[in-house]
Amino acid sequence: EVQLVESGGGLVQPGGSLRLSCAASGFAFSRYAMTWVRQAPGKGLEWVSHISGSGGSTYYADSVKGRFTISRDSSKTTLYLQMNSLRAEDTAVYYCAKDVRIAVADAFDIWGQGTRVTVSS
Amino acid sequence: EIVLTQSPGTLSLSPGERATLSCGTSQSVSSSYLAWYQQKPGQAPRLLIYDASSRATGIPDRFSGSGSGTDFTLTISRLEPEDSAVYYCHQYASSPRTFGQGTKVEIK
Prior knowledge:
The complex is a heterodimer of chains A (about 120) and B (about 110). Chain A has about 120 residues and is mainly β. Chain A is about 0% helix and about 50% strand. Chain A has strands spanning about 5, 10, 20-25, 35-40, 45-50, 60, 70-75, 80-85, 90-100, 110, 115-120. In chain A, strands 2, 4, 5, 6, 9, 10 and 11 form a 7-stranded mixed sheet that branches. In chain A, strands 1-3-8-7 form a 4-stranded antiparallel sheet, with no helix packed on it. Chain A is globular, with a radius of gyration of 13 Å. Chain A starts with a strand and ends with a strand. With about 110 residues, chain B is mainly beta. Chain B contains no helices and 10 strands. The radius of gyration of chain B is 13 Å and the shape is globular. The chains are: A mainly beta (about 120), B mainly beta (about 110). The interface of A and B includes residues 46, 62, 108 and 114 of A.
């Protein structure tokens, strides 16, 4: 079964750091680009960051550029999101998602269940 | 950045009726790289349509997508009670990838 399981969310103070993980199984992880998408409470979906299958190319939303770092470990079939200098507006459920195809740009066919991040003092 | 604008904000229809959801983009979406997702409360989004008109695996054929350029449509031909959800369009033609603000479909 193709599956993504996020972990690492929690309550953190403004200015703090958190690392999210997304454990993948059931597919050739290293061949697929992966993405983080977040959803603030009661709001819509926001694309956060994307990484190519090789890990050689990364992309970020302007709202997180310079603060968040996406990475992946093919040996552990795990995707990461290192979040530094967290702000209240980063409060959201964070989802990891897999591209449909092995391509440069694609929609997301498999999503994790999400992990909640709350930034508050 | 390509801005996606969905209409209407809320759609209230009866079971068996046809639902038509629109997604307009601020720039032409190349290769029709547009997708539609369904999200129910407390759940992750579910891919319905990609490449504007291709149904994702396991999606019933009452869901269909159409459009190109800057105008795209998701049609649910015969609404069922379980179709009550928020629907988002998403462009992946250019970075940053963007989502519409969502259309809520309510079943009377």
